[in-house]
Design brief:
Mean pLDDT: 88
Number of strands: 31
Largest sheet: 7 strands, mixed
Helix content: under 10%
CATH superfamily of the largest domain: Cupredoxins -  blue copper proteins
Low-confidence stretches: 1-40, 319-334
Strand order of the largest sheet: 12-11-10-14-19-16-17
Structural class: mainly beta
Bound molecules: CU-O-CU linkage, copper (II) ion
CATH architecture of the largest domain: Sandwich
Shape: globular
Length: 499
């Protein structure tokens, strides 16, 4: 059988499998593209990365041969033995002592996204270590219980390294959360979601083409914890699912394929003031969603897909400079992944076993002090500009050594992010957890999933989003940037210094 026949047969078999197993699955064109590659289409079981503590932890960043599906090896770059880094579990009050060893072929550094840490532990790109080098992190864990993550942060190479696997989930626990009795153990599933193109030649290739340098880099297929389109067996009870958007550029519209609602109990900075029942929520790169999914009413034997539902891309392609929209002058293989807003299956849950459901009742969540934006000492405004193959903040590209903003230690400030560019920008601040206080234009309101504490906020074209934060933990140089990794790597980032 030659390759053409193999692909043709593979497609037919694959499509019928797909259709019968996942009625709401990817579109035909997505499926056809998937099946262009002779990779078995069976869903691999979801594997949880090993759980480690941060006490004398060594993370060795290296190229590793891993399996992204049974029998499909690929070279990943990972800070652990698996396709992505281990899940680090700490408690508020712990001291993290972590050694990063760099066995990659290029410089790297790790950043603890969402954690307030001293300057020298923050993974600023100027702290990169060369191949063969090591870096020692030593910091107290002062943040609330919640879902955080860590990832590579070398300038110009964050996108490429994270895409290959240089990321992991970091979970903080504390006594206030313990008291709630949330689902744990086998009923707690951390999911680091990424989208990738199926690897050609056994490696993940991340090379944004011209139009991708504007909108972002998109994959065809979702990976969870480094496993392609995995499947997880569940019982008829409630699970705590902690989702991290670790994609390069994709906004995920989380939803369940059977249309059932879920409860959102936390986001970037820990538990919300109260759970919110939703049928979907949007999360951009860098954001987290802490969900309770109740399979108690799902018939045993059925399958429920956690998916990113289709939505109209917020990018305003019409106003893109030089008419380099998708599909123009591209064509052929590798012309781009599934576009922003395309429906994408993420993780399949197979409901395999009936149990007496432990329905988690929403008890009061830990109180969260609200920050009054009227106490702000200062307001700053930042324009996010994307035009002519450049991504800038206030007209400037990132300069490692330039301090763009100086903030007084202890002050509360309001920062306003203005997006008059054609693309969405998820704006992230290091070193603070902020409150989203206002959105003007575009969606015109604070979304239910933006309550509580956040470190990343999605700013759509035409929106002005204001956040309030108090800079009262450490002095030093920290970053604010767009977390679309293509934009960030091209310089949509600045230094601010707390003095
Ligand atoms: Cu998720 Cu500057 O980081
Ligand atoms: Cu960060
Ligand atoms: Cu951006």
């Amino acid at each position: 059988m030659d390759r053409r026949q193999f692909i043709a047969l593979g497609s037919v078999a694959g499509l019928s499998t797909l259709a019968s197993r996942t009625p709401l699955a990817a579109t035909l064109s997505n499926s056809a593209r998937l099946l262009d590659l002779p990779i078995p289409f069976e869903r691999a079981p979801l594997r949880m990365p090993p759980t480690v503590s941060a006490d004398a932890l060594t993370l060795r960043a290296a190229a590793r041969r891993v399996e992204i599906a049974p029998g499909v090896p690929v070279e990943a770059w990972s800070p652990g033995e698996g396709p992505v880094g281990p899940t680090i579990r700490v408690r508020t009050g712990d001291t993290a002592r972590i050694t990063l060893e760099n066995a990659l072929s290029e410089p790297t550094i790790l950043h603890w996204h969402g954690l307030r840490v001293p300057e020298r532990a923050d993974g600023h790109p100027r702290l990169v270590i060369p191949t063969g080098g090591a870096y020692q992190y030593d910091f107290p864990v002062i943040d609330r219980a919640g879902t955080y993550w860590y990832h590579a942060h070398p300038h110009h190479r964050t996108g490429a390294q994270v895409y290959r696997g240089m990321a992991g989930v970091l979970v903080i626990g504390d006594a206030a959360e313990d008291a709630l009795g949330l689902p744990s153990g086998a009923y707690e599933l951390p999911l680091l979601i990424q989208d990738r193109r199926l690897p050609a030649d056994g490696t993940f290739t991340y090379e944004p083409a011209m139009h991708e340098q504007m909108e972002g880099f998109f994959g065809d297929t979702a990976f969870a914890n480094g496993i392609r389109l995995p499947s997880q067996s569940v019982e008829t009870t409630t699970y705590r699912v902690r989702v991290v958007n670790g994609t390069a550029s994709r906004i995920l519209r989380l939803a369940l394929s059977n249309g059932q609602p879920f409860r959102l109990i936390g986001n970037d900075g820990g538990l919300l003031p109260a759970p919110v029942t939703l049928t979907h929520l949007d999360m951009a790169t860098g954001e987290r969603a802490d969900l309770l999914i109740d399979f108690g009413k799902v018939a045993v034997g059925s399958r429920v897909m956690l998916q990113s539902a289709a939505f109209a891309s917020p990018a305003r392609m019409g106003s893109m400079s030089m008419g380099m929209g998708r599909g123009m002058g591209m064509g052929g293989m590798g012309a781009g992944g599934a576009p922003q807003g395309a429906a994408m299956d993420l993780v399949e849950f197979t409901v395999d076993r009936a149990v007496t459901p432990v329905a988690w009742k929403p008890r009061a969540l830990p109180r969260l002090a609200t920050l009054d934006p009227n106490t702000a000492k200062r307001t700053r405004t930042f324009q996010f500009n994307s035009a002519m193959m450049q991504h800038h903040i206030n007209g400037r590209a990132f300069d490692m050594e330039r301090i763009d903003e100086t903030v007084r230690f202890g002050d509360t400030e309001v920062w306003t992010f203005v997006n008059e560019s054609p693309f969405p920008h998820p704006v992230h601040m290091h070193e603070v957890q902020f409150h989203v206080v206002e959105r003007v234009g575009g969606r015109g309101r604070i979304m239910p999933w933006e309550r509580g504490l956040k470190d990343t906020v999605l700013v759509h074209p035409g929106e002005r989003v204001s956040v309030a934060a108090t800079f009262d933990r450490y002095r030093g140089r920290f970053l604010m940037h767009c977390h679309n990794m293509v934009h960030e790597d091209m310089g949509m980032m600045l230094n601010y210094e707390i003095v």
